[in-house]
Amino acid sequence: MNSLRNLERANLRFRFIPTLTRTDKNYRGWKGETGHISSEMLVTQVGIVRDPIYYIAGPPAMVAATRRTLSEAGVDEDDVRTEEFADY
Fold first, then answer.
1. Is residue 39 a contact partner of residue 69, using CB atoms and an 8 Å limit?
2. Is-contact 80 54, C-beta < 8 A?
3. What CA–CA distance (Å, rounded) separates 46 from 37?
4. What are φ and ψ of residue 11, in 5° steps?
5. pLDDT of residue 24
6. Residue 68 has pLDDT above 90, yes or no
7. For the residues 30-52, what does the mean pLDDT come to?
């Protein structure tokens, strides 16, 4: 996680928003986001969602769900890059 934090500090165009999906805000003092990433969360964290390029990597079902979320938030399909990990 420190490597991603360092990348965020070094590159103003990169945002790192760690999110726990299977816990609540009280988990061991967790201060970050919780729950599944939603279009509302994207707008809150990113603001203007139509300018960035989005990279999604993971199991096929997660990639498909994230694509749907980005689409619901108004992100153009041409601004999404994906890689699926089969048998994950």
1. yes
2. yes
3. 12
4. -130, 105
5. 66
6. yes
7. 85
